[in-house]
Structures
1.
Amino acid sequence: MQKKTRTRISPRVSMPMRDAVERGRMFSEVALGYSQEQAVAEAGRCLQCKKPTCIKGCPVDVDCKSFIRMVARKDLKGAFAKIKETNSLPAICGRVCPQENQCEKTCKLRPTGQPIAIGRLERFVADNYYARTSCEEETGGEACSVVDESRKVAAIGSGPSSLTLAGYLAANGVKVSVFEALHSPGGVLLYGIPEFRLPKSVVQREIDSLKNLQVDFLCNYVGGMSVTLPELFQQGYKAVFLGVGAGLPRFMKLPGESLIGVYSANEYLTRVNLMYGYKFPEYDTPVPPGKNVVVIGGGNVAMDAARTALRLGAERVRVVYRRTKGEMPARQEELEHALEEGIELEILSSPLSFHGDDQGVLNKVVLQRMELGKPDESGRRKPEPIEGDTFSLETDLAIMAVGTGANMVLTQTTPELKLNQRNYIWADPETGETSMNMVFAGGDIVTGAATVVEAMGAGRRAAREILRRLEG
Amino acid sequence: MGIIIQKRALIPKRVTEMTVKAPVIASKARPGNFVVMRLHMKGERIPLTIADADPEKGHIVIVYLVMGKTTALLDTMNEGDAILDICGPLGRPTRIEKKGTVACVGGGTGIAALHHIAKGNFQVGNKVVSVIGARSKDLLLFKPELEKISHQVLVSTDDGSLGHKGLVTEVLKEYLERDPEVKEGIGVGPVPMMRAVAEVAQPFGIRTLVSLNSIMVDGIGMCGSCRVNVGGEIRFACVEGPEFEASQVDFDELMMRLQAFRSQEKKSMELFEKKELL
Ligand SMILES: Cc1cc2nc3c(=O)[nH]c(=O)nc-3n(C[C@H](O)[C@H](O)[C@H](O)COP(=O)(O)OP(=O)(O)OC[C@H]3O[C@@H](n4cnc5c(N)ncnc54)[C@H](O)[C@@H]3O)c2cc1C
Ligand SMILES: Cc1cc2nc3c(=O)[nH]c(=O)nc-3n(C[C@H](O)[C@H](O)[C@H](O)COP(=O)(O)OP(=O)(O)OC[C@H]3O[C@@H](n4cnc5c(N)ncnc54)[C@H](O)[C@@H]3O)c2cc1C
Ligand code: SF4
Ligand code: FES
């Protein structure tokens, strides 16, 4: 039975890529996207199941089956509108969602190893038929309601959760102001995920389209400092959404971790992405140079840091991870891309200490060899140190990508907000409402570091609830 | 955006005071807070302390020492020019309560930052003793301003051109020996001065704070560039500071980390001076 299916199903249309050697030295986007011909061919593989299972795999309920059908018929406008019905950031999701764990995992063709490349198709549709001005295309439905200035909602932070909330509410005639502490909006999409994976122009396009819906972006505003929550209500905002993210980088409290040459991935990536440090000295912000780079961690953030270091001229980049390759939390595609580009893995190891010269400049990291023991709460086998088995690597740049915690600026100035045990903001899972009336929260600040699309899902849920309250 | 309302050279080509229109920040600024600014589209983000704020006029005052590229560029800007981005107020404000006598110790450009803190203490009714020092009389900032809000201003200069000849911490020590009523000390200035303040104040057992100036990028707790070692713990100066208990601070580490980008900073400044960079 399995075999039969396999012979009938043609393989996925592969996506054009830049050459691994060439791209390993440049910041241009790695994956080039489908041509129309390729997209139509890929869409043509879809079975158009009576009971499609792909949709269930999508946290924001994109009607994959329908939009794929439209792509197959070359109705790209229709496909775009279909996706936009439930997903306001398709160009971004098509690039950064872990589809292998979502729609492509639940796709009926998955058992053949060749599920429909839903993410690539989504990206194709968004890139090719992006709506710039038309409200109709923005919402995927009829023309939007006129924005009613008296129904104002504030969003604090401008990551994907807030952007989604803004898109949903604005399309429904609500005036949204987004307050961002940094000098440009986008959150992690801007300062974290690098250009070669998510071009800044793509993020900008999504933001511009929100501006067309009269969403205001107020940068350099720090929620809790420049403006407090009670003040926002005094200024006439009817509801406030908190999407401030989980950007506080963690360190491991190891000896030598403050040497010159040890950076958090957030600092490294922020210097490069937000501040354009890779264009120093034309741009003022310096980036620490590194010829022999060690990245600690195994997630997307670690991969992004490693691939960035390579592009900035590193001769050798090693990713140090305490479990094995199969357990790495990074998106599969990113891991593969990194390996193709020549990033090396140092698995089953964990840093013990960093060492430097008399100027405090890093030159070595000492690591502990690990082995996998019994499964822990997460179901993964727990890495345990192998007594006495240590080794060291020479390095001039170590990047810590070992997780992040809740951003504290807002929570430390707003003691009324109830936090959960892990210091994230507590929010009702159904409505997104926090312990403060008409104050909602979502995204990484509620769940801890997660994914773009989950943050979007939270933004959408909160937006729906806010709209219900404003109307009811 | 912040329009420069007034520019005043305190020490020509070295230290300048600027009054900038920033109504939102002015309405919220409390002593101890700082701003992060970016001057142009290709600029870096640098932190500067809010030396004073006038919520009615919507103005804040900054005082900067020309150190490198960004402060040198700032110094080419004039009244009417706009600072592209100005974000704040940032940092935890100084905890100001009525508690009696407070010794406010400032060195160099730090005296400007100290001013706002001294003023806050004065306004809640504390007895403010300002102890300030510089290399020479001409380089001593904010003395007249501090005199308005201090019960006493004690001065030291390295060359003896005004006040005590020697270090500001010598004056502090002598004062602490004389006045047992001092309840709190606060030091703002170069790292060696702050370290000395910590050492001098320690035997007297008074709570002493110092304001740390580690290298910052975002200023909102997302990069860890500003991390300092306080009591053996990693703390982020931008969101948990910039003020910390002086006796707990690892000043050696702070000094070391301030050098992290020295070669790039030098290059940037050289290109700027050769007018090859904006
Ligand atoms: C390097 C990196 C790579 C990643 N790769 C992927 C990937 O490939 N796929 C994927 O799905 N996910 C990825 N993620 C995770 C994903 O980016 C996040 O889960 C998502 O961005 C969270 O969105 P958010 O809306 O919660 O806020 P964030 O994107 O975290 O944005 C929060 C914003 O709030 C601002 N802010 C904070 N405090 C305040 C305040 N007090 N006032 C005003 N503004 C404030 C911040 O400056 C920031 O701009 C990655 C994350 C990183 C760091
Ligand atoms: C909370 C805080 C408040 C400050 N307040 C004042 C103030 O009121 N007046 C004042 O003159 N200075 C202040 N500083 C220091 C000021 O930020 C630096 O002098 C300035 O960034 C130097 O930039 P530059 O390009 O002119 O010099 P550069 O040549 O780039 O740097 C000179 C030196 O300044 C330090 N520095 C460089 N970049 C940064 C950065 N992004 N953040 C912090 N330090 C940096 C480094 O030690 C460096 O070696 C403060 C710093 C902090 C952290
Ligand atoms: S489950 Fe897969 S094959 Fe079926 S409709 Fe969805 S995408 Fe097409
Ligand atoms: S400056 Fe980035 S965390 Fe403090």
2.
Amino acid sequence: MHPITVTVNGTKYERQVEDRLLLSDFLRHDLLLAGTHVGCEHGVCGACTVIFDGAPVRSCLMFAAQTDGHRIETVEGLAVDRDHLHPLQQAMRDCHGLQCGYCTPGILMTMKVFLEETPNPDEAQIREALSGNLCRCTGYQHIVEAVKLAAERMRK
Amino acid sequence: MNFRLTQPAILIDINPLNELAGVNNGAGERLRVGALTRYRNLERDPATAQHLPLIAEALPHIAHPQIRNRGTIGGNLAHADPASEMPAIVLTLGGRLRAQSAKGERWIDAADFFVGALTTALEPDEMLMEVELPKAPPRSGACFMEMSRRRGDFAIIGVACTVRLDDHGRCAEARIGLCNAGDGPVFATQAARSLAGRAIGKNEIAEAAKLVQSEIDPGGSIHASKEFQRHLAGVLTMRALTKAGERARGSA
Ligand SMILES: Cc1cc2nc3c(=O)[nH]c(=O)nc-3n(C[C@H](O)[C@H](O)[C@H](O)COP(=O)(O)OP(=O)(O)OC[C@H]3O[C@@H](n4cnc5c(N)ncnc54)[C@H](O)[C@@H]3O)c2cc1C
Ligand code: FES
Ligand code: FES
């Protein structure tokens, strides 16, 4: 067991974690933040993407023990409250950027950092940035539209 | 580990070794990349863009941004996946790697480092510390190209090449390496040699591409037969050599 202190969505958690506990399982089962989804468990699908010290990473490819002293953001930390979604969430809703929603948390966390680094992206850049997130429902068209709309609103 | 290919009894997290991360761009002709340098840092490193154009061009092909945010150069090279871009590039550039154990350190040439599929010359008690690569010389051009089924997938075949011109605009030296073309990264010795001292024209390039096709031994997969991989290797070699030649002519 490892004692860890990790900040998730601004809240500090002190926990004892098993050596082999994945970060994705720690978030879902220990912290009960089940918004982070798990699809493939080997880095391919992107559903488990969270923001680790400011960079989007696969939470299924890290151990919880590695997060000691670090900062994590998950989809639960995006919206201010129920009535005030993050511009990306609002745009996904307005553009029908999700169907089953399984891929959505990973896409939101990836796109959040992408738009911070690339506030005025063209479509090719958006598609490139989305390439690490699989969506089996939407065909991506509406997700691309949503990211464009969010970018536009966030620039204002 | 996620594929259950290894189930280590003891696992050491080397991520906190910050001194192994970063690019050391000294005044000399070589540049050193620490084992813990992440792909993403290399992508954003101006010295890499300037002196290692081959790597700069290949990085966006490696997996996805979320993987490149964590994946390290040392982990990539020590893992030595035959389909991976980096080993082929380090071999093409003729880099060398520094290994360290409790007993001491040694430098290993890339040609000796990559032994086979997922196998390197590292001893069980050795750790990879850094890789040293020659900076692109004047009058040279580099090009990396690969074909994969989707963005971020491992390459069906990938070609890395560099061309250096002499004062008469002929090829002084060419280097050609491939990924996913054999048991490990492949250096196409004969193809590279065939270009030395000659013009980089259509015929010379076609000849070199033929030699590349005979020098590789791709494994084939459900995504691409060996024949298709060999065909692609020829096509990509022609395109990459042409581009590298153009770039060499364009550089001062
Ligand atoms: C979805 C996905 C797509 C990918 N696509 C590509 C791709 O297109 N091209 C590509 O090249 N790779 C690809 N990869 C692999 C990726 O590049 C990994 O980052 C790379 O294998 C190294 O990972 P790492 O640095 O986390 O090393 P780890 O996974 O931590 O380590 C890999 C191996 O190297 C050993 N090791 C690590 N560091 C050292 C060291 N300093 N000294 C000695 N041994 C060491 C470890 O013990 C382990 O055996 C992909 C991975 C994923 C998940
Ligand atoms: S569950 Fe982590 S990438 Fe698929
Ligand atoms: S909405 Fe169902 S996988 Fe993307």
3.
Amino acid sequence: MAARQAMPHQDPKERARNFDEVALGYAEEQAIAEASRCLECRNPKCVQGCPVEVDIPGFIAQMKAGNFDGAIATIKLTNSLPAVCGRVCPQEVQCEELCVLAKKGEPVAIGRLERFCADHERKKGVAAPLRTQSTGKRVAVVGAGPASLTAAADLAKEGHAVTMFEALHDTGGVLTYGIPEFRLPKAIVKDEVEYIKQLGVDVKVDYIIGKIKTLDELRNDFDAVFLGTGAGLPKFMGIEGENLNGVYSANEFLTRVNLMKAYRFPDYNTPIKRGKRVIVVGGGNVAMDAARSALRLGAEEVSIVYRRGEDELPARKEEVENAKEEGIVFRLLTNPVRILQGDNMTVKGVECIRMELGEPDESGRRSPVPKAGSEHVIDADIVIIAIGTSPNPMILSGSDGLKVSPRGTIVVDESAKTSIENVCAGGDAVTGAATVISAMGAGKLAAQTISEYLRNN
Amino acid sequence: MSYTILEKKQIAPQVHLMKVLAPDVARAAKAGQFIILRIDETSERIPLTIADFDADEGYVTIIFQEMGKTTKQLAKMTDRDVLLDFVGPLGKPADVRKLGTVILVGGGVGIAPVYPQVKAYRDAGNKVISVIGARNKDLLILEDEMQAASDELHIATDDGSRGHHGFVTDVAKKILDSGEKIARIVVIGPPILMKVAAGMTAPYGVETIVSLNPIMIDGTGMCGGCRVSVGGETKFACVDGPEFDAHKVDFNLLMSRLGLYRPEEAQCQETHQCTCRSGN
Ligand SMILES: Cc1cc2nc3c(=O)[nH]c(=O)nc-3n(C[C@H](O)[C@H](O)[C@H](O)COP(=O)(O)OP(=O)(O)OC[C@H]3O[C@@H](n4cnc5c(N)ncnc54)[C@H](O)[C@@H]3O)c2cc1C
Ligand SMILES: Cc1cc2nc3c(=O)[nH]c(=O)nc-3n(C[C@H](O)[C@H](O)[C@H](O)COP(=O)(O)OP(=O)(O)OC[C@H]3O[C@@H](n4cnc5c(N)ncnc54)[C@H](O)[C@@H]3O)c2cc1C
Ligand code: SF4
Ligand code: FES
């Protein structure tokens, strides 16, 4: 069996100082070579691992024959954002984990092939979609993240008049304000939004539902509503020193860098503190993105402080590897106890404690317990907290009867319906912080439910 | 999106008033709320309080003081110019109810956000005693409007060029000492003024409310950059506030966090001035 094709990357030393995309994508020969590794299983396990059930052996077979136009068409039958998913999906726990080749060695690089096909199409220019005949029904889509982008596209294709409302001044949700340019170029997100505009979706930014209009008003103005408001509310740890100058939530740090382009300060006017020694608390994608952004802003040392071990890091494996190559220090089985204060209420360091993995809890994960007497101080001038987010409650003001769980997530049934008649919801707002592809899957399901509802009402 | 400036005028040295066409915001606005604007693609997002609004005409009035890069750039704009973004109304509306007699204190540009509250408290059936102040008489804004909207208006200037010679807090203290029953005091102005006011009213046990102005980005609860400490708890001023119980606010933390980007702000202005000059 041929070895899996390596992804060409920008040199680690060089890329650690710029915001250009890290992974450069396969060349055509590489793509065909990698596609040729696929066995085209009759009962493909990989497809079961894909939340939107892309016909993986199908598109890979087309690639083998050099039919990239056909391949992207196959992917797009079920995945409307392949240029995004090929870059950010955690393939190692989805399709690639289940690929039969994974048992013997290395799975087919399905994500990289998907990306290749999407980039191939982007280079050629995506054809403007045909507009469907109007149904005369009006649907409001709240939020402009992957859940809403998917729902809006599918609803528009059905012929409904869709209006999208986004609180921020730009569309894309986390794809725009959270995931950095070096991992997901913003031009890709922009093109996806252009595409849904061409489908006839009316996109309104600077428009907060719950402030300008309530959900109750929206339900009267439109025939149906989709809520894709995400989980944008940052959590803090509640430890001493968390409000000191120099402590950021990952959301703030990344919003300054990505949405406001602080990495181009002062040409862009939003400032950011460029630390010398930066500590990022957490082990997910958000933590990796924050750490690697801090490095690119010029930090001398950036550490990830995470309370569990390497195997438990929830981030995409590829990003952990990239981060290591770039020189990010991993301080695993370590947890912050308090943030130490320097002059003028700034940060001087973080007192941490070592952790040990104890007995498995109900979820089967071994929970970390602090090791008495192992306290130690790590010097730092910037601390970034990346321990998770919860749903933003803004949407809830003026939404009588919308059922919400104690965690703040919107409650839906198996068809994405909320407790209110003509309102569906999906994505992080329903699941809590999850993945791009699960948000898209939910948007797709909700669009089907809404279309069905509109046919009957 | 784009939002047209209907009218722009200077109302005091370095203080400007702007009416911006934003019908959706105007329709939903309430006293105590604010907006966030962005002038163009490279600008910062800056928060400004809604100083007035007209739902029928569809405009929102903002009053701002030239502080740094963004407010100076804003000050150069004129009628018919457009702002790229203007989002709101943000924050919780002021909790205006019928309480009896209330004192509303505005210091400097803080008079602007106090003005809609004076009207709202009066409409709710309260007797409103307003106290406004500035460093000198030239910097005093909205005097006529405040006179018309209030039951009583008191004025203080630091240099004595108009009204009481001293601080607005001195005047408010005198009113408290006069024995008139005061149900609530609302104080809006520079953080140091709000801090002093909180200390002044504490012994009287009068409910005191301040409107906090930490550095913000999104204004939607998404970044936590605006966090303040109130009664030992961390709150996000943009969604939990901006109004809080003055006696519980950690003003030292607020003031220190407001200074976080001072070196960068200076750099931003310098770069801006350089490019302006070379362009001339
Ligand atoms: C830094 C970071 C890195 C990540 N990396 C990955 C990755 O590599 N792979 C992966 O699969 N997932 C990743 N994720 C997770 C993924 O981005 C999210 O799961 C996904 O974006 C959720 O999509 P969504 O559409 O539900 O919500 P979001 O993308 O959060 O979008 C919600 C939108 O709704 C808007 N909104 C909220 N309330 C209102 C309102 N009241 N009115 C109007 N608009 C409103 C918000 O402003 C926002 O734009 C990452 C997340 C972060 C933060
Ligand atoms: C809820 C709220 C309401 C406000 N209402 C008014 C108002 O009605 N009129 C008025 O003149 N000012 C108001 N401000 C303050 C105003 O937002 C700042 O003066 C403005 O952002 C300064 O920007 P700059 O680029 O001109 O100056 P800079 O040089 O960038 O900053 C000058 C100082 O302003 C503060 N500041 C900077 N950026 C921000 C930001 N993004 N958010 C908040 N503060 C910042 C900092 O303390 C800084 O030191 C309000 C602030 C808040 C949070
Ligand atoms: S499981 Fe692996 S080898 Fe089989 S079809 Fe899927 S990608 Fe190809
Ligand atoms: S300004 Fe971002 S949370 Fe308040």
